[in-house]
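With this grant's support, we have settled on a layout for protein records. One resulting record is reproduced below.
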Amino acid sequence: MAFLILADGTVFEGKSIGAKGKVIGETVFTTGMTGYPETLTDPSYFGQIVTQTFPLIGNYGVIPEDYESKKCHIRGYIVRELCEKPSNFRTNGDLDGFLKAQNIIGICGIDTRKLTKILREAGVMNGMLVSDDVCPEVTPALLEEIKKYVIVDAVKSVQGAMVQEPLKNAVEPKLTEFYTKGYADGNGKKVALFDFGAKANIQRELERRGLEVTVVPYDTTAEKIISEGYDGVMLSNGPGDPAENVGVIAEIKKLCDYGKLPIFGICLGHQMLALANGARTSKLKYGHRGGNQPVKDLESGRVYISSQNHGYAVENDTLPANAKLSFINTNDGTCEGVNYTNIPAFSVQFHPEACGGPHDTNFLFDKFVRMIK
């Protein structure tokens, strides 16, 4: 058996999956219908107990070629129903075995719909996952222990997890003519990809466009980037509170002050680029996580469906004069993209490299290539 104890005292009872033990984390939900292996290996979920709202998880097993990093970064995993016998020609094992190998505690068989409603109404809250036959007594002391958990040093903690060498030899998806049409050719231009917890597919998308990608550590200085002659800078996604990364933000500001290198920021990179230019960020009530978030392009009026995974957002009304809001979330009006008018830089809160899908905003990588050229 296993139990989920929320910070408000709510208890869910279910079946234990994955590793045994006890863990505390920030309980969140994601609405993705596919891509659970990518979710499990996405460094942006560091410190979090992830709830899948889609009712059946594990039906196509685990596929190492699709991992977004070398290992699992979540604190715990919650599903309604676990498929114990996956069926897929690419599968390399079942989900329960993967969780055990990664030492991740999980629970299945609980009412994930009820849990999601609690998190939507009350907001993201901490929780404790316990795999045991008997539920711990829910005392004030236990709830205080759960509430005290805080995600700190998130970016630093996921360093070295990015898949790098296998990328060029990875199994390439069969891209349709529509999807490949209009690819910009980077012609070997050099891009520094800052690893704040980067998803592997960011590097794949850059390399597919003919760019030469060098992954650099999160704490690389602006002076080093400038001196090594890169043609562009990619600021990756990553976990945690963006404002925590004071040193990184200072280096991004130096790159902005230099003003000659094209910069493209995604998710955490988008937030820290905004902070470097004087904007502010704040924590959302329950965040945006899943593959069905609608974003509106304010220039064209077109709405795209995007993949997202973030708990913080740039505050729209704090953007400086040199920053123009480019995308908004049509559900709550929050900032989803910024174009900078004084430097060659832009950023988005969502994931144009999304895998599994949607690929609606994949064209933004072509925009970056054209900016470099």
Notes: Residues 37 and 62 are 6 Å apart (CA to CA).
